[in-house]
């Protein structure tokens, strides 16, 4: 019986270039079949559309990591004095404006190491994020999630929009 080989493409978009690799799983081993690179020359939407069409990456599954302006902060708190879950629920907006930029914002709470509690806030530039989404939609590539770092933006944007991004 012949094993079905599903192609997977991984893309990394930085401020200077786009790098991609394609691979498939064969006998429980990942086989890299191609590596591609393109220097960035325009906006993120135009560059990603050009990259996907130039290298004919219109089949299989995708993972996309993109460098988009992200602001982050981390603060400690005492869970006996402060209900972070309620604070996030009632005080953190999905988006906010700061100067000329609009950001998508999310937060999460973490315990690490044991009995040390942190509130992590992250805000992603909404304009760049929308351009990335638009560029991928223009190619008709079968991309469901643009995945990356940091959490909690990963969790929040995935559940709100199906798209997440990160910072370099």
Describe this structure in words.
- With 168 residues, the protein is of the alpha+beta class.
- It has helices spanning 44-54, 84-91, 126-139, 153-161; strands at 8-13, 17-26, 29-39, 61-66, 70-76, 95-98, 101-111, 117-125.
- The strands form two sheets. A four-stranded mixed β-sheet has the order 3-2-1-4, covered by helices on one side. Strands 5-8-7-6 form a four-stranded antiparallel β-sheet.
- Helix 1 (44-54) runs parallel beside helix 3 (126-139).
Mean pLDDT: 77
Largest sheet: 4 strands, mixed
Residue stretches low in confidence (pLDDT < 50, at least 5 long) are 147-152, 164-168
Distance between the ends: 43 Å
Output the number of helix runs.
Answer: 4
Write a brief caption for the model.
The chain is of the alpha+beta class.
Secondary structure topology:
Elements: E1 8-13, E2 17-26, E3 29-39, H1 44-54, E4 61-66, E5 70-76, H2 84-91, E6 95-98, E7 101-111, E8 117-125, H3 126-139, H4 153-161
Parallel strand pairs: 1-4
Antiparallel strand pairs: 1-2, 2-3, 5-8, 6-7, 7-8
Helix pairs in contact: 1-3
Keywords:
four-stranded mixed β-sheet, alpha+beta, 168 residues
